[in-house]
Amino acid sequence: MKNAFKIKVYEVTRAIPKGKVTTYGQIAKLSGNAKAARAVGAFMRMNPDAPNTPCHRVVAADGSLTGYSGHGGVVGKKKMLLKEGVFFKGSVVDLSRSQWKRS
DNA sequence: ATTTTGACTTAAG
DNA sequence: GCTTAAGCCAAAA
């Protein structure tokens, strides 16, 4: 059921540990639909559980901070991640060091 | 019910 | 390295 997938996406997003990031595709996979990366982004945009869903820990497949409408956009998002201890390579996240791997 | 749009991803030029 | 193209998904119009 689509609704279950949506819930799962939020659940996974919520499970991202501090100082780590994950890609939309990864979330989609963990949620059951490996090809729903786009839909995942759409869910982040809706973000029904803003304080409970750290959508700022979700980045593109190459570590680029895309979207994010709030807190100064990607700039605030980047600062937030830096503050959490996420490794950055210039303007993108260093996925080799900070991509979240499910426990 | 059909079309458009978008916080995606991968491949190819 | 950037732009196009195609693929897949879900929400909104």
N/C terminus separation: 26 Å
* Count of discrete domains: 1
Report the radius of gyration as a whole number of Å.
12 Å
The helix/strand series, from N terminus to C terminus, equals: HEHHEHEEH
CATH architecture: Orthogonal Bundle
Task: Please tell me about this protein's structure.
The chain has helices at 2-14, 24-31, 37-46, 73-84, 95-98; strands spanning 22-23, 58-59, 88-89, 92-93. The chain is mostly helical and 103 residues long. The protein has a single domain (2-97), classed as Arc Repressor Mutant, subunit A (Orthogonal Bundle). The longest helix is centred in the first third of the chain and has 13 residues, at 2-14. The model has no long low-confidence stretch (mean pLDDT 92). The protein binds a DNA duplex (13 and 13 nucleotides) through helix 1, helix 2, helix 3 and strand 2.
